[in-house]
């Protein structure tokens, strides 16, 4: 049952995040409540402890990433729900693999995006002018353009699958 609930949560969050870059509160709240209730009914106090420690592990770890602007609030609540359903071990492994997959995806997005190529070209030209002018010309004009974004669920879903099938947690 918990596996089916986790699969439903991840699939629903994936579809929502890809479509709208948002994960609905009703989805994460229902996942958190359902996971906690399932573990209480199946394990009593031990089940409650399992669920709450997983919830806190997912929530607090992602809250740090939210604080530095790496993820959105929906991702924080999603990992709380994942923790409530799957426990601490699964949640932390899923988080680690999600960050690894997100890093790979970010590199791919940067490499194939036109803004990245134009930024690199501009930086190389400015560095060349700086060296050619003997350091007289500043490197001014290099400014940060708009952020490139992609749904974090592109990383979370494969991470969840990886942990489910290949990690002994």
Q: Could you walk me through the main structural features you see in this protein, from its secondary elements to its overall organization?
A:
With 169 residues, the protein is mainly alpha-helical. The protein has 2 domains: 2-104 and 151-166, Four Helix Bundle (Hemerythrin (Met), subunit A), CATH 1.20.120; 114-147. The chain contains 5 helices and no strands. Helix 1 runs antiparallel to helix 5 and helix 2 (25-67) crosses helix 3 (73-112). The protein is elongated, with a radius of gyration of 21 Å. The two termini are 18 Å apart.
Characterize this entry briefly.
The chain has 169 residues and is mainly α. The protein has 5 helices and no strands.
Summarize the biggest pleated sheet. Answer: none
What is the SS-derived class? mainly alpha
Strand content: under 5%
User: What is the CATH topology classification name of the largest domain?
Assistant: Four Helix Bundle (Hemerythrin (Met), subunit A)
Helix-residue proportion: over 70%
CATH architecture of the largest domain: Up-down Bundle
Low-confidence segments, given as residue ranges, are 138-145
As a whole number of angstroms, the C-alpha radius of gyration is: 21 Å
Q: Globular, elongated, flat, extended or rod-shaped: what is the shape? A: elongated
């Amino acid at each position: 049952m918990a596996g089916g609930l986790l699969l439903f949560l991840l699939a629903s969050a994936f579809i929502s995040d890809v479509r709208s870059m948002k994960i609905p509160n009703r989805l994460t709240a229902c996942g958190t409540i359902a996971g906690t209730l399932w573990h209480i009914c199946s394990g009593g106090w031990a089940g409650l402890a399992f669920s709450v420690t997983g919830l806190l592990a997912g929530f607090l770890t992602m809250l740090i990433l939210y604080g530095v602007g790496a993820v959105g609030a929906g991702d924080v609540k999603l990992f709380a729900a994942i923790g409530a359903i799957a426990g601490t071990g699964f949640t932390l492994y899923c988080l680690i693999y999600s960050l690894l997959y997100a890093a790979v995806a970010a590199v791919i997005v940067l490499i194939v995006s036109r803004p990245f190529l134009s930024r690199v070209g501009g930086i190389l030209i400015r560095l060349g002018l700086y060296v050619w002018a003997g350091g007289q010309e500043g490197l001014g004009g290099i400014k940060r353009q708009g952020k490139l974004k992609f749904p974090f669920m592109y990383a979370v879903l494969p991470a969840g699958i990886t942990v489910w099938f290949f990690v002994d947690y």
